[in-house]
Amino acid sequence: MVCQIAEIYGFNINAPERTKEALFIFCFILSGEKVIDIGIDWLKLGYIENKLLKVGTKALMIYGLGHGACFYYEYKDKFEFSLIPPDDLLNKLRQERDNYFPDDVSEATVKQKLIVEISIASYNNPDPKVRINAISQALNYGDDGLNLLLQALTTDESADVKDAAYNLLYSKYGKLIESVNAYQTQKSLTSWELEYTLTGHSDSVGSVAFSPDGRTLASGSDDSTIKLWDVANQEEIVTLTGHSNDVNSVAFSPDGRTLASGSRDDTIKLWDVATGREIVTLTGHSSTVYAVAFSPDGRTLASGSADNTIKLWDVATGRSITTLTGHSDWVWSIAFSPDGRTLASGSGDEDIKLWDVATGREIATLTGHSDSVWSVAFSPDGRTLASGSGDETIKLWDVTTQEEIVTLNGYSPVFSPDGRTLASRSGDGTIKLWDVATRREIATLNSSHINSVAFSPDGRALASGSGDGTIKIWRGR
């Protein structure tokens, strides 16, 4: 295999000393960038028999075999291991054999070029940790490295790899990124307009939620019903009946197959979205259920109640796992952190509490509001918590330090999926949109008696539930 690749680059390595050298180069390149320095230094010092090679020829040979090794590295992860290289690999190397360096190139230049190529090749590894390591020095690779970072940021399936790429780009181009983000935010969110209105409920709509795929909207109403709506066709799919009092909260499971609802009848119901049938009724609260939320993995459901408690439920069995106590008034709102480890709750006691989901223990109490906390929401990255209160303020909190970051005007905040925009209902009946980075109001959507708002999964639509029983769909242009 090594002989075949060497011959493509014009190297005859039949002589025993050259065969050893070629194998040495090839194996060092496959071992990764950490040993390239050692390998090339050994060649320069003559630790391997190579006295018949000129300095320039040696550099060409190093690059030629190294370049081939990089291609082979990619192929060995994609195909069953074989000592016979695939024909398409050899053909690709033949097409590129004239693209290596002139005879007088330095070993240092060759070394840097190979490090870049190894990083690009190893980025194809299925292990996210290997891909993160592959891009760790990408800013030193010129345009090739920049393109690699942009590829990781925009197309990698791992959130950790995307975060690593973003952090590297931000470390060098932070001001530029902030400027572009601000421009894109202003461009996309200052031109929202009402697209259509859904009618059918006979009383106030207190909760709205989009399905994870954005195709279905759920609405819970004081008329004791839940309606599922086809977003594209702008029509009702089905009405879910079974609660005997106001439906205060609705939430889709992460897979979109199940809908949870919390009611003034003190119960939580789980519904099959496909059939519209009730799956189970969860009982255990002794008063109104104001909030329901699924954990990110869909296995746990949390509920907040006017009995001052939060309950965690096993979705598969319908059994209560634990009861969180600590609030001295009604629990109006709950939210899981994106990693599912923390639960936030807002209460009529004016406090926000953070809970360890695994142990059920209270982590911290955030104080600062002067009225009931009606809404809590985590940012998509989990670093920021937003809270909305009857004191007509929204507060943003640093989750790590538990310190207040800023206070805005409004109620019931929700983050856009990209975390750059915050939507809230306002005391004047409007919906306000805020730029999270600058804390500035960027748009106002005029309506009346808004009770709840929700972003679509793609962030391009916003649903609002109103006191007049209607749901409005707003579209960003």
TrEMBL record:
Statement: the UniProt record of this protein carries the keyword Lipid metabolism: no
Repeat listed as a keyword: yes
UniProt WD repeat ranges: 198-239, 240-281, 282-323, 324-365, 366-407, 415-444, 443-477
Annotated keywords: Repeat, WD repeat
Stored InterPro entries: WD40/YVTN_repeat-like_dom_sf, WD40_PAC1, WD40_repeat_CS, WD40_repeat_dom_sf, WD40_rpt
Pfam families attached to this UniProt entry: WD40
Protein known as: WD40 repeat domain-containing protein
Organism whose genome encodes this protein: Anabaenopsis elenkinii CCIBt3563
Lineage: Bacteria, Bacillati, Cyanobacteriota, Cyanophyceae, Nostocales
